[in-house]
């Protein structure tokens, strides 16, 4: 999973806190807004032949999680559907008998700049 660090967000968050805005909800909204285009691009890929549509339907954005004070979300196969579409990981990373046909990493790379911009814009909206 790729990692991204944003600079200057602390200033915006401090200003939001001083205004009494529910920062936590705004942070969650910013993360989800930024993840949507990545999910849509992953679903739209032609990297896999998904005749049943199960893999596309199983791609989801998780709820916001927090680890060591850092909020994050994951985009990928919903754990409740994992047993039905376990093959998604083989497509993404390949096997000893099959080359990788990644669909999540390219979607992230395509939207990397948009992710930063979307998070910043969503947080700025909260300042209004």
Word description of this protein:
It is built from five helices and four strands, in the order αααββββαα. The mean pLDDT is about 85. It has one domain. It is mostly helical and about 130 residues long. The chain has a two-stranded antiparallel sheet. The protein has a two-stranded antiparallel sheet with strand order 2-3. The two termini are about 35 Å apart. The chain is elongated.
- End-to-end Cα distance: 33 Å
What is the structural class? Answer: mainly alpha
- Major sheet summary line: 2 strands, antiparallel
> How many individual helices?
5
The neighbouring-strand order within the major sheet is 1-4
The overall pLDDT, averaged over residues, is: 84
Number of strands: 4
Given as residue ranges, the uncertain stretches (5+ residues, pLDDT < 50) are none
InterPro entries: HK97-gp10_tail
Pfam family, one: HK97-gp10_like
Protein name: HK97 gp10 family phage protein
Features of this protein?
128 residues; mainly alpha; HK97-gp10_tail; HK97 gp10 family phage protein; two-stranded antiparallel ribbon; elongated; 4 strands; 5 helices
TL;DR?
Pfam families: HK97-gp10_like. By secondary structure, this protein is mainly alpha-helical. The protein has helices spanning 9-19, 23-44, 54-58, 88-93, 104-125; strands spanning 59-61, 65-67, 70-72, 75-77.
